[in-house]
Specification:
Blueprint: E1 5-10, H1 13-21, E2 30-33, E3 45-48, H2 50-53, H3 63-75, E4 82-84, H4 88-102, E5 108-113, E6 116-120, H5 127-145, E7 149-154, H6 157-164, E8 172-174, H7 180-184, H8 197-205, H9 211-215, H10 219-226, H11 228-236, E9 253-264, H12 267-288, E10 292-301, E11 306-317, H13 320-331, E12 346-354
Helix pairs in contact: 10-11, 12-13
Length: 361
């Protein structure tokens, strides 16, 4: 039986939840991320709703620049953006409710992130039936949760994911096998997973900018010029993807980072912030019912030099005390001359629990 795969992506999830729950925010540009502090803030945008995106504000944009874009819009007579910190707990709970519903409607569900999932719906047999199912799911999410989702449907995960981004927000795009190449050909090579800005530049040097152009190169040429990734691009430019729907998403690590509003070497401030990160990671470990064996920390200095340290334990544990003790032992040398001989100020700290077990049954 031919595969029919669905990709569901919640629209501006964090911002949409806030807009739904706070009537005063409805119809306003919303930015989720760090505190902009009047343009002096550190950190980046986590997500933005579609009104804010019209201002040029998007994920990963420095929060200070997002604030400037908002002020520019205000000067033009447009609504000023509302800046909010992410409420991860609320988003996780809402995501769990949505996916708990979704799993009852599909053959197999793979949760890819807090706000997106892949599903095998091959049992519906036809793309017409797949369309009806997708409409039912979208209508339920809108009426039950007050949120919108964009859905893409295709013969594999690659096509389904690209399709889900086609008509955002609240979109539904269906690409049956016979329409895959027509759908892909005019698009930028950037839609292919693994082709980032640098690879895009490399391809542009040989006048390859679209999927159709990429398809004009044979496999041997691509492999010769770009190595193993060239082989992958050859297949994906033809809409080929055999990756299965994986029911149990493997969690490789759990981590948390903090960017200081002002570079600092104040040990009290750094340790206090670090312990808050430890508590956050500990809560996640307990919630997911897993154990870890490796503790890792990250330190970014004011000159953006970034260093990491890690330690692998003798046995797996879920102990908060062990996580705190081991991670602090890794961090403390950066607060003195042992790992910071030039006494550089610190911009960012982070902690990760790695080498995880599967969730306890």
């Amino acid at each position: 039986m031919p595969r029919i795969i669905m990709h569901l992506d919640m629209d501006a999830f964090f911002a949409a939840i806030e807009e739904r729950d706070k009537p005063r925010l409805r119809g306003r540009p919303i930015v989720i991320g760090a505190d902009p502090m009047g343009g002096r803030g550190r950190g980046v945008v986590s997500t933005a709703n579609y009104l804010a995106r019209e201002y040029g504000i998007k994920s990963a944009l420095p929060i200070s620049r997002a604030w400037k874009y908002s002020q520019q819009a205000k000067a033009e007579g447009k609504p000023e953006a509302v800046f909010l910190e992410p409420n991860i707990k609320k988003a996780e709970e809402e995501g769990d409710r949505i996916f708990s519903y979704l799993i009852t409607k599909v053959d197999t569900l793979q949760v890819a992130s807090i706000d997106e999932a892949y599903a095998d719906i091959s049992s519906v047999k036809t793309y017409k039936n797949a369309e009806e199912l997708a409409k039912e799911i979208k209508n339920h999410i809108k009426s039950k949760f007050g949120l919108t989702a964009s859905i893409g449907i295709g013969p594999n995960k690659l096509i389904a994911k690209i399709a889900s981004d086609e008509e955002k927000p609240d979109g539904l795009t269906i690409i049956p096998p016979q329409k895959v190449q027509v759908f892909l050909d005019p698009k930028s090579v950037r839609i292919i997973p693994g082709i980032g800005p640098k690879a895009e530049e490399e391809l542009a040097k040989i006048n390859i900018k679209t999927i159709k152009g990429l398809r004009s190169l044979n496999k041997e040429t691509l492999v010769k010029k770009f190595g193993k990734r060239g082989s992958d691009w050859y297949e994906k430019s033809r809409g080929q993807d055999d990756n299965p729907i994986t029911v149990d998403r493997e969690i490789k690590s759990i981590g948390k980072e903090h960017t200081f509003q002002k570079d600092t070497l104040d040990s009290g401030e750094i340790i206090d912030s670090f312990k808050k990160l430890i508590r956050s990671v500990t809560r996640s470990i307990a919630k997911k019912q897993i154990k870890f064996k490796t503790v890792a920390i990250k330190v970014r200095f004011s000159d953006f030099q970034t260093l990491t340290r890690s330690k692998t334990l003798k046995e797996y544990t879920s102990s908060a005390k062990v996580l705190e003790t081991e991670s602090l032992q890794l961090l403390l040398p950066f607060l003195d001359s042992r790992s910071n001989p030039k006494r550089k100020k610190i911009r960012l700290i982070g902690i990760r629990a790695e080498n995880l077990t599967a969730p306890l049954k």
